[in-house]
Structures are given as structure tokens and as C-alpha cells.
Amino acid sequence: MASAALLLSLVSAAPSATAEQSASGALQRSFAAAATEYGVPERVLLGVSYLQSRWDGHGGAPSVTGGYGPMHLTDAKAALADAPHHSHGAEDARGDDARASRSALEAEIQDLAALPARLRTLERAAELTGIPEEELRTSPAANVRGGAALLADAQRRLGEEPSADPADWYGAVARFSGADDTATATTYADDVYDVMRSGQHRITDTGQQVALPADTSLRPDTATAGGLGLRTVDEDLTECPRTVACEWIPAPYEEFGEGDYGNHDKANRPSSQSIDYIVIHDTEASWDTTLQLVQDPEYVSWQYSLRSSDGHIAQHLRLKDVGWHAGNWFVNAKSIGLEHEGFLVNPDAWYTEAMYRTSARLVRYLAQRYDIPLDRQHIIGHDNVPGTVPSTIPGMHTDPGPYWDWAHYFTLLGRPFVPSAGPRAAAVTIRPDYAQHQPPYTSCAEPGDTCAPHGSGAVRLHTAPDASAPLVKDIGLRPGGGDSTDGVNDTGARASTGQQYAVAERRGEWTAIWYLGQKAWFHNPRTQRTAVNVRARVLTPRDGLAEVPVYGRAYPEASAYPAGVPVQAVTPLPYKLLAGQRYVVGERTAGEYYFATTFDSTDHTVVRGEELYYQIQFGHRVAFVKAADVRVLNT
Asked: Domain check: are 382 and 244 in the same one?
């Protein structure tokens, strides 16, 4: 409040245009001054900072791995949590009621004294500069000085002389990554030099204008990385693009008595079943804890883990096999799971540019390999996966949550969300300005507390075109009819960036969409749009039907099951798609069920029926309807 009062007084003083320009250029000058002080080329300093934070300071709050400021100086004590991601809520990560679930394990808190150097760079920066740690956390100028000191120290440790030529700093940049293997360190350095070659400019989260001019002729001296002395990772079985650093750390497939086994299922995808989805998660645990968990046969599994500090990737399952990660067996059997190191409910959760870029490269590679469309019907968050039956809806997970920057992520994927229709379009894509759009959230650290202000890709949905109107209700999430809230984990009245919805009505600065069988209104002013108009296929109940059931999985009809494979009930969720309502169409699929309840994979069977389904964007989560119940329209 004091800061806000100070800002108000400054605004009321009506500074000159020159003064405003001077204030907005302060961070750029800090980079120049730090570069001069420590003998680091300014271009190198700007490139490293962009890959860490895109030059944002995040108000002095830590990233998901305890990194602070534009240089992401790390003090990971702020990021450690006491429970693993898959122990949250009541979700069974496998999501198949044909096989009994087991309770999730609890993770031990990591020994703070054993934290690797990559998670303690702020401490080292304080030693090198003499700047107090608190100042390095909260002052962007001090933080930049700390980063420059670390780069100069890395150059010195490699036995290299200070140089004004950015090409001579490749090894120091690789060391700055904190990676413990050569492939990750050099991939990180390659990314920094790619930023320097292509150039960047943007306005930061505090209104600072920062620019890094392009230098297409820049070619780094990669020989300067020869003295890093880092380990070589096992890449033999990895399935990754060449542009990332990928390590094989296998998840176990073991039997441990009484018909129980873990932590995944053997399969033969895509020959047996198509892979249609990529599911984005965050780990809710530190990197070391994440690796310990996925290597435990009594835990659950996913295909890839991604490290926040440098974008390093670990692959745990062959892509032909099925991981237990999404809480919905139909989705698990047809998806690939990516776990990103981070904590959804950290008060100012943000992810490094290094991890966003690595993740985007991996997703592009997977999408091309399996012909997966790059849209939000197929690249989904764990929080978009539907409950399988009514009883599982309240326990479904909510990561990566409202702080994941879907707009930036899809720009990196080469598929930015852009308008494709005029003002009277029948559908919209949710797309608020991430940095400027800061809806309040609660219950980040403690129940009911107010989360720190932060950019968000999610918009709130109301029962009427009025900010004071109640939020829409989710009868599946709250069967008793309770109200939706602004809790960070409450998805009951939330639409997320990239999701597409059919327009129900427009009124002034407000737009209504069809959502969970009701009209849901969001503020969409012309001066700051929270959605763009698009063309999309939609569906509605076929003529003569007053309502259509909605499902959480697309299972075959009973007659499709062979002898020996128990018929899985096609159980509707507690929602209805009513006559006159429309929903955007995603995947069209035949009913499928992968029967895999035994350790011996020779008994595993794919059951494929004649019943066809459409996936739809029904609420915050996707859902399925039978093709025979609806008609599809082009808008």
C-alpha cells in the first residue's frame, strides 16, 4: 500500500516526458553499468537475463525454484514443499476403476544443506559483490550486478581472460546455467546465443523498456566450454529433439505381490492406440524429489520431467508405454505427460524462459511425430482433464494453474492465439494480456489468504454481465450446490488462455459463453480484450433432443468387449448439454478402452467400439459427447 501511495504521488506530480523515458530506461542502464563494472559484454548479460526471466523482476518474489530478479539468482529454500504433486487431493493418477488405486506416497523434505550449487547462486553473488542477500532479492539493479559478477567469476574459473567480444563468453554462459552435465550446459548457452543473434525487446512487468539488438553474425567460440568438466548423461533410449538436452532416468516396471505392480503399463503405441494429447503438469516438488518419486515402483509415472533452472529434460518411459499421471485412464492411454518443476500455489509462481523454451521444443517434436494438433484441445493442462465419473470430479488436479503463461507458450510453439473472425463471431479464444491481467486469487500459502498480484492467463466467469454478480457454479465440483470461489485451485468458474468457447450473448463490454450447461459472462472491454473472435466448429444437440449427456471418457459400447475383458460402464457426468447451447468441437474418436490390469502385458487388450464421440470444451475441463446425440455446425 505504501508503494502504491508513492506511485500515486509520483503520477500526480505529472513528470515530464523526458523524466518518464528516463525512469522507463533505468533497467537498461543497470545492465550497461553492471557490464562495465564486471567486464562482461552487455549483450551477454542481456541474453542470459532474457533466458532466465525475460528481464522481469516479479516484484522480488521467487520463481518456482527460488530464483529472484531479472538474473534469476537462486535461493531454493523458498521453493521447497513438503508433499509431492500426486499426493494432493483425492485423485488416482492412473484413473481406471477397473484396477484398485493405491494411496500416494509422501515425500521427505529435502535437506537444505545438500542443495546443489545451481539452487544457491544468490549466496555466491552476495559473496562476490558484497551486496546483502535481501538487496539482491528485491533490487533489480543489484540483482543484475550479482548476475554480472557470477558471469565474470565463471569466466575466471575457466581460465579465460575478460573480453569485450561476446563470442568469447560461451563457456561462462554454459557454467552460469548451473547444469551438472555438458549437454544441458551447452544447450543453455546455445539458447542464450540464439537470443543474442535474433535480438529481443519488450516492456517488463514494471514498465521498463529493455532492448537487445540483433547480431546475426555472432558465432560463439564453443571451445571455451572445454573446461567445464561436467558429466555425460545417458541419452541412449531418449526420444527427444536434438535441440534439447535429454537424459534417460527410467521409471521401474516391477511386480510386488498380491497382483500389484507399478508404476506404469506396457503398451505398443501408436500401433495399438493413437497418441492424441500432451498433458502439461507441474511437479509440486523439487527436482531431486521428483526423480526419487518417479523411480519408486509404488508411486506413479509420466513420460518427461523438465527442470526449471536450465530446461534440462529427463525421460522416464518409452513413448509407446502408458504413464499414470492424468487421473483419467482414457486420457492416460492416449497421452504423453510432461511434468515441469514448480509449485502452482507459490505466492508469485513463475517459470523460467529456459524451461518454457525447452518444453515448447519437446512438444513441437512430439506433435510432429504423432500428428497431434498444436491447439488447446490437444495440448492441455492437467487442470483440463475431466473426471472419469461424478465421484472423481472433486479430486481432480488443478496444475499447472492460472499462472502458467499459455499465450507465451503457444507463441514459442509457433501457434500464437490470433483472431480469425469479425466482431459478430460465434466463438472466441480466451486470450487476456498475461502481464496486465491480474485477477485476485486466494489460498496460495494458507486457506483464505490473498495471493500476491501476478499475471494470469485465466478469466473469471459470472452469472451476469457484472463484476459483482456471483461466479457460475460447477455442480460436479460441488454436488451440494456450493458457490465457486477465487481460490487458486478452484476451477469451477474459470476459462483459460487458448480455450475456445461458443458465444451465447454479447452485451456492452461483456461476453457470455456456453459453459457447463449455462451462460457464463466475462469482462471483455474493447480497450483490453480478454478474448479474440475466431471461426470454429461447434456442436449442439440434434433436433428433437432437449438435452444430451456428457461424459468424462470415451469408452466403447458393451457389445465391443471380448470375452475375458470386463465391460466398463459409460457413466455420464452430472452435467447436461441442453438444446440451443453450443460448444466448440475438438477431437473426434471412436470409443476405446485399454484393458491393462495385470503385470503380464500379454493379457493387455485394446477394445475399440463403433460408438463415436466428440471432445468438447465444456467447462474449464474438456468432456465428451456421443456423436449420435449431436449435430456439428461450421461457424
From this structure: yes
Would residue 581 count as lying in a domain?
Answer: yes
256 pLDDT band (50/70/90 cuts)?
A: confident
Residue 14, domain member (yes or no): no
Tell me how many domains the chain contains. Answer: 4
- Same domain membership, residue 607 and residue 490: no
In the structure, what pLDDT confidence band is assigned to residue 23 with cuts at 50, 70 and 90? Answer: confident
**How far lies 131's CA from each of 32, 118, 175, 275, 281, in Å?**
18, 19, 22, 51, 36
Q: Whole domain around residue 275: which residue ranges?
A: 233-402
Let me know whether 221 and 237 are in one domain: no
Residue 532 DSSP class: E
144, 49 Cβ separation under 8 angstroms = yes
**Residue with C-alpha cell 554480472?**
148
Residue 6 lies in a domain: no
Please state, in angstroms and rounded to a whole number, the distance separating the CA atoms of residues 47 and 195: 6
Residue 78 pLDDT exceeds 60: no
Calculate the CA dihedral of residues 440, 444, 447, 448 and round it to 10 degrees: -20
Q: Are residues 343 and 287 in the same domain?
A: yes
Q: At 195, list the grid cell.
A: 537470443
Helical residues (DSSP H) of 273-327, grouped into ranges? 287-294
Helix and strand totals (H; E) in the chain:
13, 28
Same domain, 428 and 494: yes
**Cis omega before residue 252 (within 30°)?**
no
Q: What is the mean pLDDT of residues 464-469?
A: 97
Separation of alpha carbons 402 and 396, rounded Å:
16
Say yes or no: 265 and 249 in one domain. yes
Beta-bridged to residue 429, according to DSSP, are 500, 532
Same domain as 510, residue 432: yes
Statement: residue 110 has pLDDT above 90 = no
The Cα 115–Cα 117 span in angstroms is: 7
Specify the higher pLDDT residue, 309 or 614. Answer: 614
Rounded-to-integer distance, Cα 16 and Cα 91, Å: 57
pLDDT at 87: 47
Residue 26: inside a domain: yes
CA atoms of 34 and 127, how far apart (whole Å): 16
Same domain, 241 and 220: no
The answer to whether 532 touches 429, Cβ cutoff 8 Å, is yes
pLDDT in tens, 504-538: 999 999 999 999 999 999 999 999 999 999 999 99
Read off the pLDDT of each residue in 75-95 and give the average, rounded to a whole number. 62
Q: Which DSSP symbol is given to 129?
A: H
- Among residues 190, 225, 260, the one where a domain terminates is 225
Residue 30 CA, distance from chain mean position: 31
Q: Which of 183, 209, 225 is the last residue of a domain?
A: 225
Model's pTM, two decimal places? 0.93
More confident residue, 173 or 108: 173
C-alpha cell at 495: 476459462
Whether 588 shows a pLDDT value over 80: the answer reads yes
Owner of C-alpha cell 554454459:
174
